[in-house]
Amino acid sequence: MKYIFLIISAFIFVNAQAQQSDATYLKIHKTYVINEDGSYDYTYTHQLKYHSYISFHRKYGETFVIYDPDYQSVKVQECKTTMRDGKVVKAPDNAFNEVLPRYAEHSGAYNHLRELVITHTGLEQEALVDLTYTIHSDTMPAGFLSGKESLVYSSPVKELKLTFKVPANVELSFEGNKGQKVFNENGDQKVYTFIYNELPANIKFTRAGGEAASVLYFNQGKKLETQLISLMNSELKPDNYDKTFGPVVKENMDEVMRIQRKMVKEMRTIHVPLTFQKLPVPSIKAIQLNNSGTVIEKALLLRKKLWDIKIDANLAFEFPVEQFNEKVSNLENVTNVYVVVPTTSDPILLPVDDIPAANPLFTNYDKVIVALSPDGELQKLVPQNMNYAKLDMFIKVGKDYSEVSYQGIANGIFAGWPGANFETPRRMTNYTKEIEDDIVIESSASIKMNGRFESEHNQYDNLLEVKLPILNAGFNQFIHDQLPKGQPYVVEYGFPLEETYVYSVDNNNDCELIRTPDDFNVKNDFFEIVIRTEKGEKETIITQSVKIKSPVIPAEHYKQLRESMINLGKNTGRTLLFRCNEK
Fold it and tell me: Phi-psi category of 28—alpha, beta or left, where left has phi over 0 and alpha has psi -120 to 50?
């Protein structure tokens, strides 16, 4: 009886876990076939069980298939719903409708794309939908087969099967999570199969141990640098390139930033996936005339504009670290494109569709950013400066407000974005009004700063509560972002990071300091957090220091990091309490 009870309990638990999701994929099968004539077919099959009202009214009532009719066609082989009582409902003709993909609206060159909207009928709780369709491509736009398959889905997947059928003379390479791999060769055909069982919904994969858990990517054998060169139409440097092309320096920094800001604010970005983009880019002039373009098109235009003012600009491509392999990575692995300009220090990465809070070079702990040299070689871009800030602050308590004087240095993410984010309100917390502010730009990634500002405080009768100001970047992000309980955790900010504040408070005033943050000291190989108060005769010194040494915090240390950040975020973690004399 005891064992029967345990089996029943286990069954109930597993079933309850399944019911927590709105739906469950009983299977997802995807098959790629390269045909002898150079065309290829992609066949998608799924069997989806609906559990909740939300699943068929908001999430999975429709399936969307995007394709390019210039060289592709779609055929739906099966679309049916098996209702709870066993009744089978086949999709009627009016369940299939073609529309323009939303991102292609008003896009000029991409308004020929089509999206087949498949509306599923007969849906109810516990209904089962079987869907199979094939996209036939007359040709492979890049001239070879490449791509990636995500292993993350919005609902649990019982079985995911990825199959690749290619002629015997075709070499296909794979990287990432290969699951259970099966390889067969039968005469004139090779068949690669990858099977994954019991994938949970929206699992947060981490990079602990260097695993590439969230994706499988593949390539028919074209090296990454060759793909990037063809993407840029072989324009690695301008025709008139000579020694007069140079880095960004203080004298031309404002002009570079003005050109970048103008493009971000005035030129529309068309978010068409690279899979459907016309590559290499046919005409930069057309982009300029239409005042719109994809990220890669705008990047090429920005590079041209910087070449016109003799800036040695180049393109840089961003990849998730788990999706970077020089032999197998392809354009589908690219997550962003920048224009990189050299400086006398670290280079600046210029986005073309936003103005970031800091140079993206310093917030790329989980990314690989590569550029192409004029000789067509891949170059990884790695910052030489670290994310570092050291500030001395003197806090003067007043009746209506407190005044903070500060001086120090800031590098990397703390230095802000050249020409855009140097205002005190965007740089400091607990700010109300600037009194004076002076910034010296040492380089693109380093500033010296000093100044004074009025700081907010709260008063309760004769008690005065004063917040200790810190920089908006850095550990302030951890304090305000909810750190998940899951372990291990990939810390989501630039690395390495070191941030130190030394606060001085005058003891000889009308308000007596009666409470300071509790002393705290945690040190290990992955992070250090120190809060220390030293009370002297004339002044009290409070030191707060945070060092994050690694982007991956192991499970045995992560709980301590989380508790430390929660402590810093509490009022007692960054608050001084004064008792003021009543007059």
Answer: beta
* pTM of the predicted protein model: 0.81
Q: φ and ψ at 196, to 5 degrees? A: -130, 130
Whether 453 and 437 have beta carbons less than 8 Å apart is answered as yes
Q: Which amino acid is located at 61 in the chain?
A: G
From the number of C-beta atoms within 10 Å of its C-beta (0-12, 13-18, 19+), residue 162 rates as buried
Backbone angles phi, psi at 458, to 5 degrees: -120, 140
Residues 557 and 488: their CA atoms lie apart, in Å, by 9
Q: Which CATH number fits domain 226-380: 3.40.190.10, 3.10.620.30, 3.30.200.20, 3.40.50.150?
A: 3.10.620.30
**% of residues, the chain, pLDDT over 70:** 87
Domain limits of the chain?
Answer: 22-222, 226-380, 387-580
Q: Rounded CA gap, 298 and 284, in Å?
A: 8
What's the CA gap between 333 and 325, in Å, rounded? Answer: 10
Mean pLDDT for the stretch of residues 212-232? 82
Q: If we measure between CA atoms, which residue out of 309, 308, 304 comes closest to residue 285?
A: 304
Res. 573: pLDDT tops 80: no
Q: Which of 538, 546, 552, 542 is nearest to 508 (CA)?
A: 538
Task: Tell me the C-alpha distance between 580 and 583, whole Å.
Answer: 9
Strand order in the sheet with 88-90: 88-90, 72-82, 128-137, 40-50, 23-34, 157-167, 189-199, 180-186
Fold category of 22-222 in CATH: Immunoglobulin-like (2.60.40)
Range with the poorest average pLDDT among 102-106, 212-216, 509-513: 212-216
- C-alpha to C-alpha distance for 119 and 255, rounded to whole angstroms: 51
Helices 295-308 + 250-266 axis angle, to 10:
150
In our burial notation (b when 16+ CB lie closer than 10 A, e otherwise), range 412-446 reads bbbbbbbbebbebeebbbbbeeeeebebebbbbbb
